Amino acid sequence: MRNKTAIVTGGNSGLGYATAKKFCDNGYTTYIIGRNQEKTAKACEEIGELAKPIVFDLDQLDKIPEMISQIAETEGHIDVLVNNAGINMKKEFIEVTDEEFDKIIHTNMKSVFSISREVVKVMKNSGGGNIVNISSMAAQYGIPKVIAYTASKTAIEGMTRSMAVDLAQYGVRVNCVAPGFIKTPMTAEALNSDPERKNKVFSRTPMGKMGEPEDIADAVFFFASNEAKFVTGVTMCVDGGNSIGF
């Protein structure tokens, strides 16, 4: 059996880091794409020799084809793409500029389309593969002050369904994970600085706690595994019940 290859965007911290580690721990050569050279190199060093750093800004859409071609040339195939990279901005709706809105859409949506298109060209010629997109609770219900992020993540869930239909003919499955509130430094900082928001999160989460980054990694790995071989076009909420809580 050939060695498998995965790509995890935004894999140098948080949920992406846990996901990259999960794939490496299961024998995948895993390319971690990150903007920050030091963070990306450190993440790969910590995870181990199967983790390969790629310092790249996904906003440079025109350079994505070359980057994917280089991975394909090195490995001969790409089995999994995890579209995890994304940015957020918390700001009052009426204060968001067109430029700010477009920046979020560009990074969170356009880059996902571009890198997925290029990876599918490789998967198509090597027997198929899996794409797992990362959404958010912002696509499940209204969250204040994140209009651009909400628009981008809602689009990701729609793209997941459309991609699943388009790409099944090539043996490519496409699914999506929507994380709830997960224990990461970024989430902790956001909630600890806003006690009202923190209380609201816990009050509407039936399991009464936050998740671990590994919970998201496990869900992503399930979608990419043979155990999910008849599953495509699905969004799985990994949220302790937050999205259905009262």
UniProtKB/TrEMBL annotation:
InterPro entries linked to this entry: NAD(P)-bd_dom_sf, Sc_DH/Rdtase_CS, SDR_fam
SUPFAM superfamilies in alphabetical order: NAD(P)-binding Rossmann-fold domains
GO molecular function, one term: oxidoreductase activity
One Pfam family here: adh_short_C2
EC numbers: 1.-.-.-
Family: Belongs to the short-chain dehydrogenases/reductases (SDR) family.
Protein name: SDR family oxidoreductase
Organism, scientific name: Winogradskyella poriferorum
